[in-house]
Design brief:
This protein is mostly beta strands. 7% of the residues lie in helices and 29% in strands. The chain is built from eight helices and 45 strands.
Length: 690
Amino acid sequence: MKTARYAAIWMPLFIILSGSATGVVVAQGAKADAPENRFASHSPMRPLPVASSQTTETGTGRFRYVDSEDGDDTNAGGEKSPWKSLAFSLRQLEPGDTLFLREGTYYEKTHLSRSGSEDQPITIRSYPGELAILDGGRREFFEDPKQAWMPNPDGAPGEFISTRTYHDADARRVPTQFLPAAWEPMWGIEEERPLALGHFGDSMVPLHSYRIASDMRATNEFWIGDKHEMRETGIYCGPGLWFNRQTGRIHIRLAHHQMPGLGQQAYRGETDPRKLQLSVSVGFGEEVLRINGVRHVRLQDLVFRGATGSPMIYIYGSQHIELDHLTVYGGFPALLVNASQKLRVTNSALRGLAAPWTSRAHMKYRGTASYQIVFRNDQPRNEDIELAWCEFTDDHDFAFLRYVRNLQFHHNFVDNFNDDGLECGPKLRDHTLFIYQNRIGRCLIPLTQHEIEKDEAPLDHDPDSGVYVYRNVFDMRGGTYKGPPIEPDPAGEFLRSEGHLVGDHGGPVWPVMRVYHNTFLRETPVWRNYFLFGLGAQGMRQNERDVFNNIFVQTDLVPGVTIHGKQAATLREGGNLLWGTNEGPQFKGDLFGKFRSTPLFELSRSVYSPGWTTQDRVADPGFVSLDDQRLLPDGHAVNAGQILPAEWPDPLKQADADQPDSGVLPAGAKPWAIGVNGRLSLFGGSKLAD
């Protein structure tokens, strides 16, 4: 029976109840102080996927069916005679067809080579009311864990090894993703590339992918010494997997954490893998689904898991592709796009490889330094891409967006990336990225760029090009887990490192940026207390930047004015409001006075006639609360902004018709929902009531 089979595949839906800064997830109907009781491993970090009953326009073609358990590829593909394999089924599709996947798990790595047409697209989706899972992993670890593992008599306490061998895992496939600042190629240490990755099957919390056995077997959890010096003592990075190239076996250890300060983020679950369903994949370089050279195809209501340290979904040379209501676990990256146009990703959840106990240092130096989304730069350029109403969470780096023209990134939830957030890339002559109406939470560096080649950025640019960042909430409070402490920290302060709002790697020329009508929230000052959280001071060489009508609020101190240089960069800024919640009420004097007496201030007037800081204010913006950034009608942010160029996009222009208000939301306007089906609020947590 399908319903009974589905119940064994997944646990009930979880919902986010609180945690704009912490990302706490609590079981629906369970007590908040005991969220792990229903799970043998660890409580889920995010909502688990559930079956959808949504209907869809399916064109005028045929309905086709595939069933991984009850199908047969010799059948006709009808509802009563379904096919069995995806590989066979996908080859049979014609324009207008809808392929329904009956619930179950499809352990296949496959490709799509059939196109639809504009008026008759091809649709591939779970059957309504059921949930289909595409898994690139090994089914024995999920379906028969008792027989899949055995104790390792030569290993550390609690270490197990696979009963089968997987010698083909080290096939040395060449990476396709191209990642800046990652280990590509892994010069001299290819034998340390993590080849075994996975998740707990009940909660889909990631397992660590170990590079060396000494880390997996270590009892030490502190970051003692240089990252290279710890090879002998090792550092335990949490429950995880290691692939032994000599024996071809997968090693696993699910030891509990002992380091003080981890609190509820520590692993306290089952330590015997024979008692757990696990999603485990081995190998490298083979995507779970490849979409190459096709047009007018829609994927809906599917779950992806089991990537082998490689792209989960790779879209190359394709047009008019829609990914809707997908849940993607892992992938390196989860989505790789190259030379494609007219791609829409909507109402989807991409969940990365960072477990609650996983830090930047664990992933970057001792595991898999994954990106979640990568746009590559083969020709023609990626163009007309929309990522909307999605949730991107829990990984190392988020998105390498540089090679896109006309990217629409909106109504998304971005949270818990322990390194880079949106990688906009160095200056290009004609790229356009529009980032608006999102909630961007805990990232070590939310806006960043890498230099890939020396002096690659052009001196000139098209006047309408650049990165437009507007009507977003950037909430960096709560910080990220940057790295383990060197000594006990029972308070767990090491879990809450706040990085920079903006930063770069290698000193590239930054892109042209228009940053307006955003609200930025922090607890501690940015590095060097840079002006406008760094937007008014960093990366100003050979570009231009506009920073208008934003609110900058931090808990500790009033955001300062630190601007370096002897020449006026092409910076235009005004209408910004700065506030420190602790120091602000007692603050006396003129925050900008010292700067306005410098030669640099006079030079700034040659770039922007009022001069930098002249149109800015230090004042309480007048939020309903710090966690609800709606403006009170008598707050200082009301009518504090500047009139902006009419050609700059702004969906709330009509709601802010008089003198503009500063910040993300004009006074009296309703906050919009974000995330999958709009289930989250712009201000964090569940959607606010109307």
